[in-house]
Amino acid sequence: MDSSTRPAAPGQSITVNEISARLERLPWTRYQRGLFLVIATAWLFDSIDLGALTFLLAPISTEFGLTATQAGLVGSATFAGMFVGAVGAGALADRFGRLAVFKYSIIVWGLASVLLALSWDFTSLAGFRFLLGIGMGAEFPVAAALLSEFVPSTKRGRYVALMEGTWPLGFICAGVLSYTLLSTAVGWRGFFVMQAGLAVVALIVRRGLPESPRWLAARGHHVRAQATLEALEHKVERAYGRPLPAPVVATRALTDPATTGLRTLFSGAYRRRTIASWLVWFCLLGGYYGLTTWLGKLLADAGFDVVKSVGYIVLMALWGIPGFLTAAYLIEVVGRKTCLVGFTLCSAAAAFFYGTADGMAELLVAGSFLQFCFFGMFSSIFAFTPELFPTHARAVGMGSSTAAGRLGAIFGPLVVPLVIASSGPAVVFTASAALFVVGSLVVLFALPETRQAVLEDISG
Question: Which of 2, 106, 348, 390 would bridge 436 by S-S if both were Cys, CB 3.0 to 4.6 A apart?
Answer without folding.
Answer: 348
